[in-house]
Amino acid sequence: MAKVLYIDYQRCTGCRTCEQVCAVKHDGVLNPIRSRIKIMKWEAEGLYVPISCQQCQDAPCMNVCPVKAISRNEELGRVEVNYDVCIGCRSCVVVCPFGAMSFNPIDRQVFKCDLCDGDPQCVRFCDVGAIQYINAEEVALDKKRHAAERLSMAGKDSVALLAQM
Amino acid sequence: MPLDRKLAIVDLTSGDIEIKAIPLGIRKKFLGGRGLNAYLLLNYTPDDVDPYDPDNVVLLAGGILCGTLASATGRCDVMTKSPLTGLLSSGNMGGFFTPELAHAGFHHILVKGKAEYPVYIFCHNGEVDIRDARDIWGLPVSDTQWAIRQDLGDEEVKSAVIGPAGENQVAYANVMTGIKNSAGRCGAGAVMGSKNLKAVAARGTMDIKIAYPEEALEFNKRFIDQITSAKVNQTMGTLGTPFIWGATNSWGGIRTRNFQYNQTEYADDIEPEHLDEIAEETCGEYHMTACYGCQVHCRAKYRIPDGPYKEVYDEGPEYTSQGAFCGETDTPNAITLLTANHLVDKYGVDNLEIGSIISWAMELNELGILPADKLDGVDLRFGNDEAVIEMIDRICFRQGWLGDTLAKGGIQASDIIGKNSFDYLIQVKGMSNLHSDERATPALALNCALASRGSDHLRSRPAIDLYHLPEPVLRKIYSSPIPYDGPLSSEHTEYIGKPYQVFWHENCYMAVDCLGICKYHTTFLGATLPNFEDWSKVLYYNTGLDMTPEEIWDVARRANMVERMYQLREGLKRDDLRKGDMLNHRYFDEPTRRGAPDVVGRVIDKEKFVKMIDEFYEYKGLDKEGNVKPETLKELDLEKEPSHLL
Amino acid sequence: MVEERDKLSTAESLRSTRTYGKFRCHNPTCMGRLEPKPGDKEIECPICGMRFRVAWVKKGFPRIRGPVWEHNRKIAEEALKKKGVE
Predict the structure, then answer these.
(1) Considering the domain boundaries, does residue B215 fall inside one?
(2) By the 8 A CB rule, do B206 and B5 touch?
(3) What ipTM describes this predicted complex?
(4) What is the CATH T-level fold of the domain A3-136, as seen in this structure?
(5) What pTM, to 2 d.p., does this model score?
(6) Considering the domain boundaries, does residue B644 fall inside one?
(7) How far apart are alpha carbons A94 and A13 in whole angstroms?
(8) Using the beta-carbon criterion (under 8 Å), do B250 and C55 form an inter-chain contact?
(9) What's CA A149's distance to the chain center, in Å?
């Protein structure tokens, strides 16, 4: 089964390296507006949330495309745009619930994450692991582990409390 | 290309804006950032100009690698003539401002003149506007940044701003971007304030072409691995710069009660591990944050857990704040630290300078040099947390006689206070020393005396000297890129070999500032971090500029020499205690009393110290008086300065 | 030129000199390497007798958190007396 991009925004330090390497990998130039991934920031609260395409199973962009330029590539587990067919109407931009389908004002084209054909550079450069590329069945494993840790910690605390009583 | 980013010259008096290309010849001589800023300062300011005169200029710049794939390229160098020292004002900050400026088409902004009313400058996609800032004037730092975004209707705008301290011309006011990133130390914020310039904002969507994108991507991965694998950066990425406190305070390297002691005892409350706990409790498990394109993430997020600013969000604190608000003032309490750190970020003032000046005033009060009727009711005792917090407010808003006097900076304040107050002022060239105590570390003491902008740890401090590295390792480091076969010593209490180390680090840090990357990515706190050889590659892949490590070394030497020429022009004299390369007498006269058994009882040997300065001058190409030798000017191609080529 | 760019730089080659699991005693002429056992919260330098509180950045990565105040203070006072500093 194809891997998926897993974003744990709490780990994000807001450094925007992912935006840099995404633009350079795809377009050979550095420009955050060319990046397929974008970190949304609330600086005054220290909150940073990377937003990228979720490669939806029932993708609104695919459904809305009037010329059927968007399709699902099962092998790579991604939703992709066929630029030979795309007419640049931006309907997909309008319907994407994440804003992950973007419009590049320089080349006047829609663009989205293509998982770098299986070697996502944002993941490779994200030292803190805020963006990971993992097997689909593992997406919830990390969270389960954390929840289990919390439970066991609480368990230990309650034992200690009991001992004090 | 990064090389086609331009210089914008903004005249606030006339409203004229001139946009100039930066010729390749100048790039090769100075690269960008601090080096090119120094060249522009020397060329664009009249001799002996008053720092607050409209003819003084303020320069903001990214380095040559700004906005490229090289890591941590978000550095912004701010240069002007300093109201604090009357000499070179140079500050450097991280954040996200200069990459945005680079995408807007600019690497350097030069501001001259004075606006009739408060304004801000907006740079966007090749154009520069001067905009009304009357509604924004008076706002704190972070609110100013937000107000500018609202004014422009674009949340992606980044800005370098001043806070109330800059508006009130506190002589050590900062220019700031983000919550806490500050170009500090020399009062560039006050100069901006004197020009009615509240901010320089930028928003850009222009491409920056990477010379060899694939190779740049691959090499940068290697570069980042080298940086993140260093133990020092792993520690810093967990605890932030406060990590330095633990060891330094253990051996006795923290000046306490101004300069009375060299260790802050029982400082457990402000130890990095405790600060880390507070950050975790208030901001979650993952509470570190980073500057543009940086994997070190050395800044903690925190909310103040208690006190008058309970639950307010801020970032840091840095090691410098620990020293300024806890060590020097002898108030080692976490709430005081986090609150004071927040206040300096809010008002836009230098943490190090304000803490040092408050502790100096505390000592003057203790000695009876400061008359009780001049204290405006503040109980200015060492160990009084409330006084520290209160004095930050008073200085930034120049309230009362004392607040107003201390806002002028140490030397001017000592002239007003009189008696022998100057003797207790721990400064070089008018700028307060870092809170570290260098009496046991001659190399570090030498750096304080010789740093170009005044006493400072970020211009030439050989911090790795403390690591007791074996001589062959030292030899390897200091023989790159230019072979060095002179003396070296692993002992950090020694005097031999240290002048060359300081000279090497001066060039290393200048190169970093010209490239526009962060000092935590070079041989500053870690011996295995990148320097000249690595930069030659990162420069080539990103910009296409093919320069050898030796050529980058020469750029750094040249840029340092331009700073020296500026300092000499503005009145630097070797032995002048106010404007020279000499430390306060207490380094030589008062032995240390705390810390490790081999640290106690130490002073700097003045005779040996003077010899170290002689030796340093020789490496640098200066004569015995500290003036530039004609042959040095010739060697560095600086004979025709100021050459007005840009 | 390209070959040269692949070569390890001086700084990169120094990575092999890193030591893990230890830190140095911070007494300048001592600088002995101290290796706390996993989980240790305190360590005494066998050479100079200074005592440090230990913190762990992560597993296998100890650092000095701070001195053991009373203990080191006594050593410092004795040293100061010996050196005849008032």
Answers:
(1) no
(2) no
(3) 0.95
(4) Alpha-Beta Plaits (3.30.70)
(5) 0.96
(6) no
(7) 29
(8) no
(9) 26
Map residue B314 onto helix, strand or coil. strand
Q: Are B23 and B161 part of one and the same domain?
A: yes
Same domain for B476 and B413: no
Query: At residue B328, what is the residue type?
Result: E
Q: What is the pLDDT of residues C16-74, one digit of tens each?
A: 888 899 999 989 888 889 999 999 999 999 999 999 999 999 999 999 999 999 999 99
Task: Return the domain boundaries, chain A.
Answer: 3-136
Rounded distance between C-alpha atoms, residue A83 and residue A112, angstroms: 12
Check if the beta carbon of residue C77 is closer than 8 Å to that of residue C37.
no
State the total domains in chain B.
Answer: 3
- Determine the Cα angle at B350 with ends B95 and B272, to 5°: 70
Angle at B391 between CA B389 and CA B394, to 5 degrees: 120
Determine whether the interchain pair A10/B284 forms a contact, defined as Cβ–Cβ distance below 8 Å: yes
What is the spatial distance between Cα B4 and Cα B488, in angstroms, rounded to a whole number? 42
Write the DSSP string, A107-142. TTEEE---GGGG--HHHHH-TT-SEEEEEGGGTTHH
Task: Encode B451-480: b = buried (16+ Cβ within 10 Å), e = exposed.
Answer: bbbbbbbbbbbbbbbbbbbeeebbbbbbeb
3-state secondary structure of B212: coil
pLDDT in tens, A70-95: 999 999 999 999 999 999 999 999 99
What φ, ψ does residue B11 adopt, rounded to 5°?
-100, 110
Judged by CB atoms closer than 8 Å, whether chains meet at B217 and A44 is answered as no
Backbone angles phi, psi at A88, to 5 degrees: 70, 35
Q: Does B151 fall in a domain?
A: yes
> Residue B112 belongs to what domain range?
2-203
Instruction: For chain C, say whether B646 makes contact (Cβ under 8 Å).
Output: no
Q: Is residue B645 part of a domain?
A: no
* pLDDT, position A141: 84
Please give the mean pLDDT across all residues of chain B.
97
Strand partners, B61: B77, B108
pLDDT tens digits for range B542-595: 999 999 999 999 999 999 999 999 999 999 999 999 999 999 999 999 999 999
3-state SS assignment for residue B273: helix
Q: Which of B273, B477, B598 is nearest residue C27 as measured by Cβ atoms? A: B598
B598: domain CATH number? 1.10.599.10
Residues B372 and B462 placed together within one structural domain of the fold: no
H-only helix segments in B153-291: 164-167, 188-194, 213-228, 231-239, 243-251, 272-283
Structure tokens at B622: 């200066």
| Contact assignment for B250 to C72 by CB distance below 8 Å | yes
Same domain membership, residue B477 and residue B428:
no
Q: What is the CATH number of the domain that holds B112?
A: 3.60.9.10
- Please name which of B97, B127, B108, B160 lies closest in space to residue B17, comparing C-alpha atoms: B127
Pick from A29, A125, A127: CB nearest B207 = A29
Contact residues, C window 30-69, toward B, CB-based 8 Å cutoff: 30-31, 48, 50, 52, 55, 57-58, 61, 63-67, 69
Band of pLDDT at residue A140, cut at 50, 70 and 90: confident
